[in-house]
Amino acid sequence: MTIKKIAIVGGGTAGWLAANHLGKALCKNSELSITLIESPDIAPIGVGEGTVPDIKKTLASFGISETDFIRECDVTFKQSIKFVNWLDQDKHGKDNFFHHLFDVPSREDSENLTAHWLTQNDGVPFAERVSSQFKACEQGKAPKKITTPEYQGDLAYAYHLNAAKFAGLLADNAKVKYGVKHLLTHIRDVNLADDDSIRSLVTKEGDDLAFDFYIDCSGFESLLISKAMKVPFIDVSDQLLVNTALVVQVPTDKDSAIPPYTIATAHQAGWIWDIALPNRRGVGFVYSNNHMSDEEAQVKLDYYLGGNNPELKYKKLPMKIGYREKFWHKNCVALGLAQGFLEPLEATSILLTDFAANFLAERFPSEKDELLILEKRFNHAMGHAWKRVVDFIKLHYCLSDRQDSSFWLENRDPNTMSEELKNKLAMWEKFIPISDDFFSQFEVFYLENFLFVLYGMKYKTLLNNIEVTGSEERILALKEITDNLMDNLPEHRALLEKINKFGLQQF
């Protein structure tokens, strides 16, 4: 049987990312159709407002203008995540912080400057020692100039964005450019065939809609892969302890400075994200309700925001932490929140959705007899990716030396870590991490990501008889580059205002 009709169930960022990836890959096949079915009654969750640099490549591949994207989606530039108070305040000072930067040195410089930092102990933060972007972030600079072409930069960057508007931009692009059909209705039932594959979808109007292949982007409801097909869920809340978020949108002054990074501030039982868009901040108080009551969480969020403000409306989001045992089953693939969710740290939700949708589109089945082999390939790759992302998120918690609550003490319990993570940490006590420590192309966080977190959190690697040569020359060269960038890069909000007025240069 030839696969000609594809249904994507659910809109939002996940659904429309999938529509664009599949539309781009399959649009030359005139016999194939893609229909996105979206309920008009379900508003998007809209908390995934942070991205990673890979999203630039994705948007450019869809033919979306960066200027249009910035103008239409309330975009600001993101160059880092600034982690505040993730270490003990008595040992490291109040408001201690480190940066997980996006602009990274070459592998040779990374090894050399990391060794220098570990052996010299000169008081310079690790991120500042290896990248000019540290000062760019701390001085509120943009990563590029108005004369820099679209999707290029003097420094690497991603974006903060309005998730609802982003979904709308993706929707328009998929419909206009790739001919994706858009059906607004509620799915009332899912009919399975004798082999447990999906035969059809029943709408609330009673229409029976049959397709050849189905993409489940129905969010936490996981209408197809979970409710209908009964694919089990792997709970990893024994490793990642946070399970609830209070989210709020906070209006800001139109002239206020915009930090070019996400702020992630640790607290007694979790952390707070703070993302600045041009006219508001998106703030989320992430916590474990096994270590802090909902009432206490609200009080602490009030305190973070400067006191109780009755005009601010908090929304509570329970978080089911884990992922599907299988992401592809029969003729159905789950993407986005239907595939799984860990927590908002490091913007993993959009990252994994984009990664999985692209991976699916690059080798999409054309015939039914191809399903089984591609199912095995997809599940193997995505299973590995999810496990390694769990390890990377866990790294932030298990390296903390905070002593102020059972939450932080439990996070350092080896029983809450995977064997893979424990083995890597044991190795990195003796050796500086290198790229060969990461064995698979299906890891979405790599060497430099780990270095920024490990040494930002002052992990101890004991170097014996190591000779560091040439580092002083590289440090002087980096300083010259940094000084030049600080003199020439504009202030963040100033650049955004220029882009909205004049636009960026096309390729």
From TrEMBL:
7-chloro-L-tryptophan binds at K78. The keyword Flavoprotein applies. Keywords: FAD, Flavoprotein, Nucleotide-binding. InterPro entries: FAD/NAD-bd_sf, Flavin-dep_Halogenase_NPB, Flavin_halogenase, Trp_halogen. FAD binds at G11, G12, T13, A14, L337, I350. GO terms for molecular function: monooxygenase activity; nucleotide binding. The active site is at K78. L-tryptophan binds at E346. This is Tryptophan 7-halogenase.
